[in-house]
Design brief:
single chain, alpha+beta, Pseudouridine synthase, 2 domains, eight-stranded mixed sheet, four-stranded antiparallel sheet, 11 helices
Length: about 375
């Protein structure tokens, strides 16, 4: 089957097996709050002004447009560490040259506020953040569903979660990755940022499909016996026995590309016994492929899996830079609260940069939030 056909329906697999949980969720400014955590402390020295802003129901680009129009500063002269959702109440940092500070003294806007100023030596760039803290309120939650939700949330907190790209990555209709393949085939796009975004969406789509395959393998290793597994995968009994003994739900494989979590250089999984213990302690995690010429290469059975999963992209490998992304990640500072009188559940947690809160919600609720929005 051609994975790039428009009628191809991809449904990701979940690590948890409970039935769907029915709640009401809306990404409004009362029920969805995101707070960006900077990668480093600002020095309060240097030529760049760092503005801590909060915005309501505005995308980062819309916020920059407002700041640009009121200050007369070109959008390209602003810096930011990450793009934030349009929906909800979001906090993030924006940079501009310090010489422009006076232009913001009388700034006022009903949906955008400047909370505080810092100075620093460099302009903010994409990736200059540690991650984001989330506050999410779910409504119309029955006591039985609240109990079910709490158990699922606690499981994800202890075992980690499949680090899928969120639906936001794929556009309004979830198919902008199809434009990415057309670009690789020669379609001309004048806007370089749009071109890179569409190619990135294509890489992300295939990453999600491969990660779903790895979730399937993890389920099979957990649920099937050694004899059944030898019929499914070209692995020896000894390796399968090691995999069966892994404490984590997600199974790392010999030949996987691993990385020190949450930051660190890539290396190959050679000693499965040794690395599975480090994985269990959250010292390392497995990295999935974003196809490109600079991506770290896997080996053995993993190489075979990737060659099959990414075969429709590999012919364009030299046209993309490529990298690796953690397939398995973790929540931090996770909190769960249920108000039975109001039938509200509040979830709070921190995610490393690049991870999506909506991915957590989809795993918890077992529903496609894109279709529900």
């Amino acid at each position: 089957m051609n994975l790039l056909e428009k009628n191809t329906t991809f449904k990701r697999l979940y690590s948890l097996k409970h039935s769907p949980i029915n709640v009401y969720f809306s990404k409004n400014s009362d029920d969805f709050v995101v707070r960006e955590k900077a990668l480093y402390e600002f020095s309060n020295q240097g030529e760049h002004l760092i503005m801590h802003i909060c915005k309501k129901d505005l995308s980062t680009n819309e916020a920059l447009q407002i700041l640009s129009e009121t200050s007369g500063i070109k959008i390209r002269d602003f810096g930011y560490a990450g793009l934030k959702d349009k929906q909800g109440f979001t906090f993030q940092y924006i940079s501009v040259l310090k010489k422009f500070k006076d232009r913001f003294h009388n700034f006022s806007h009903p949906k955008l506020k400047i909370l505080e100023y810092f100075t620093h030596h460099n302009k903010l760039k994409i990736g200059h953040l540690k991650g984001n803290s989330f506050f999410i309120r779910l409504k119309k939650v029955s006591p039985s569903d609240a109990l079910k939700l709490k158990e699922a949330f606690n499981t994800l907190n202890s075992q980690g979660f499949a680090n899928y790209f969120g639906y936001q990555r794929f556009g309004k209709f979830g198919d902008n990755y199809l434009e990415g393949i057309e670009i690789l085939k020669g379609k001309k796009i004048k806007n370089p940022k749009l071109k890179n975004f569409l190619i990135s969406a294509l890489q992300s789509e295939f990453f999600n499909r491969y990660l779903s395959k790895r979730i399937e393998i993890s389920h099979f290793i957990k649920d099937f016996n050694i004899k059944e597994l030898t019929q499914l995968y070209p692995l020896c009994k000894e390796e399968l026995q090691i995999l069966k003994k892994q404490k984590n739900f997600f199974k790392i494989l010999k030949g996987d590309v691993l990385g020190h979590y949450p930051y660190g250089k890539c290396f190959i999984c050679e000693d499965l016994n040794k690395e599975q213990e480090r994985f269990f302690k959250r010292d390392i995690s497995a990295l999935g492929l974003l196809v490109g010429k600079k991506a770290f290469e896997s080996l053995n059975f993993v190489k075979e899996l990737e060659s099959e999963a990414f075969k429709e992209l590999l012919e364009f490998k030299e046209q993309m830079q490529g990298t690796r992304r953690f397939m398995w990640s973790y929540m931090e500072n996770a909190k769960f609260h249920y108000n039975e009188e109001k039938a509200h559940v509040v979830l709070e947690f921190f995610l490393q940069k690049g991870s999506y809160a909506t991915t957590i919600l989809e795993e918890l609720l077992h529903t496609n939030l894109k279709l529900d929005c």
